[in-house]
Amino acid sequence: MRTTRLLPAAFLAAVALAGCASGLNDATSREHATPWVANATVGSVDVRDVTISPATGGSGAQAYLSLALVSSKPDQLTGATLSAGGTVTPTVPGASFSMTPNQLLSIPDPETPTTLPGLAITGLTTLPQVGTTMQVTLTFRDAGQVQLQVPVRDAPIS
After folding, report:
1. Which domain holds residue 118?
2. Residue 66 has what pLDDT?
3. What is the model's pTM?
4. 51 is a domain residue
5. N or C, fewer C-beta in 10 Å, the chain?
6. Which secondary-structure segment (H or E) carries 15?
7. Looking at residue 115, which CATH number applies to its domain?
8. DSSP string spanning 94-155?
9. Does the residue 140 lie in any domain?
10. Do the domain assignments include residue 28?
11. What percent of the chain has pLDDT over 90?
């Protein structure tokens, strides 16, 4: 009879002691890179959170390229190409993607609520499939080129 009373207490104590993400050095409190975005560094430019998302609106674009850029020196994104063909163009004609040192330059998916220009992808022979990757080459005025395997996601990272 005594062991039947101790069993629930022992169970509750085990559950409390096995608390997930407790303590100062737990694995869930540390920052980890997500495998669902592409990241790279070229010259002084850090390229972060690069994704492709298929277009859902009637803008004529097949997909959008979104990314975040930070540079320790002034630079400019001057071009983007896809190994699968197609054309990458600013959603706002004449838009300039210039970077100010140590300031974040966000190039979002224009189908999200934003007033910032984005990068539209057109002219692909097949539509991007969610869960796959596409090779993208970004060209910067001073830092040069960088190639990334960019995941295709059904929703941009916000």
Report:
1. 36-151
2. 92
3. 0.74
4. yes
5. N
6. helix 2-17
7. 2.60.40
8. T--EEE-TT--EEE--TTSS--S--EEEE--SSPPPTT-EEEEEEEETTTEEEEEEEEB-SS
9. yes
10. no
11. 49
